[in-house]
Each structure stands twice: as C-alpha cells, then as structure tokens.
C-alpha cells in the first residue's frame, strides 16, 4: 500500500484484510467545489473475485459512515 500523506494504520488494516491479503490500487482525490470538498475514490482490483470480496465484506454499508466521519474531522480543521 502506498500512502502519500499521514498514515492511519487502522484504516490500512481494514482495507488490506477485506480482500484476504491481496493488494489493489486505490486513489483518493480531494478537490474544492463551491466552497466545499469533493472526495472521489477509485479502486482497481486484481480480479473480479477480489472486487466481489471487498463488496461482500460490507464496504457499501460502511462507506457512508466513513464519509460522515471524514466530514466531521474536516469540519473541525
């Protein structure tokens, strides 16, 4: 996993363990839009099975919670 900013080991562990130790490529882009911040996430997996494993791990249900937490942190800066 390549990190271009401060590392959060808890997030890395959750991402790596969700696909049984197989790596992938994930990018996060933050851009200012109309006084706010737009976050775009893009993930590339080694196989369809890896993608489905991530989906089946509950990522879709947890993503809104994670985004709300990110919004809270960003708002406190």
3D structure, described in words:
The protein has 77 residues and is α+β, with helices and mostly antiparallel strands. The protein has one domain (9-75). The chain has helices spanning 9-17, 48-56, 59-75, and strands at 25-33, 36-44. A hairpin with a 2-residue loop joins strand 1 (25-33) and strand 2. The protein is elongated, with a radius of gyration of 14 Å. The protein starts with 8 loop residues before the first helix and ends with a helix.
Q: How many separate domains?
A: 1
Model regions low in confidence, pLDDT < 50 over at least 5 residues: 1-7, 9-17
Bulk shape:
elongated
Overall pLDDT: 75
Topology, number of strands: 2
Radius of gyration: 14 Å
Structural class: alpha+beta
Number of helices: 3
Order of helices and strands: HEEHH
Strand order across the largest sheet: 1-2
Give the amount of beta strand, in percent. 15-25%
Main pleated-sheet profile: 2 strands, antiparallel
Percent helix: 40-55%
Report the end-to-end length measured between terminal Cα atoms: 26 Å
How is this structure best summarized?
This protein has 77 residues and is of the alpha+beta class. Helix content is 45%, strand content 23%. It is elongated.
Search tags:
77 residues, two-stranded antiparallel ribbon, 3 helices, 45% helix, 23% strand, elongated, disordered N terminus
Please describe the topology of this protein.
Elements: H1 9-17, E1 25-33, E2 36-44, H2 48-56, H3 59-75
Antiparallel strand pairs: 1-2
């Amino acid at each position: 996993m390549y990190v271009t900013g401060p590392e959060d080991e808890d997030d890395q562990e959750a991402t790596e363990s969700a696909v049984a130790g197989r790596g992938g490529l994930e990018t996060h882009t933050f851009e200012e839009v109309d006084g706010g911040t737009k976050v775009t996430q893009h993930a590339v997996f080694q196989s369809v099975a890896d993608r489905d494993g991530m989906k089946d791990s509950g990522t879709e249900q947890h993503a809104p919670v994670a985004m709300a937490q990110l919004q809270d942190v960003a708002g406190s800066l």
